[in-house]
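User: I'm writing a short methods note and want a consistent example. For Adhesion G protein-coupled receptor B N-terminal domain-containing protein, I'll paste the sequence; you return only the structure tokens, no commentary, since I'll be parsing the reply automatically.
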Amino acid sequence: WPFPALLLLFASFSLMRGCCHAAPSGPESDSCSTLVQNRFFGFFLSSSVFPTVPCSWTLQNPDPRRYTIFIKVTKPTGGCKPFQLRTFQYDSFLETTRTYLGMESFDEIVRLCDTTVPVAFLEGGKQFLQMRKGPPRAGMAIYGGEDFKTEYLVVGKRNPSMAACQMLCQWLEDCLASSTSNRPCGIMQSPCLCWDKPPQLSVVDSCYHNGVYLENCLPSVKESGRDAEKNGE
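Assistant:
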């Protein structure tokens, strides 16, 4: 019995070890990492997720072919530590070489210390989206660290839910309102129809559309019949 018990203990340890390494947090944040899976919306404060440095928060896309990740970052209003937060997306993380595959940075969009735009929005289509907090660069001034808030949505590319679309459309509206040539909106496209559809052709008059009579348009047969009855023909 001692050998099977030892084998079971080793298998349990290996399973736990595999679970811990399931969070592809990278070499700088293995001691303080959070992996979010199978959740489609939520939020967190930086003080709860990044209690020390280094720390990382990773959101996994359940299927990049079917879902898109959207992030809203409300920046701190007071203090900020320059170059302390890194935000990026990637396809996978190789434990053997400690490297990210398909990595794309969002740092230029977030700009956590730039309070001229108080909110930043991101759209990610890869397997993982990660925020990683590390020590500031040498020689950079350190200010009081205030909390920032992060909200996230994982939205289906086809037939997204009404609740997700309501929130995402509000994010998109705010994102476009605050975007400039130097600070582009981080949301590229939306699977939701965020504005009303253009008015359809009137049932009463199929050639009258949005206040304008259409050129080269013939009314329907039923409509022509109604017009004939009105004229007594």
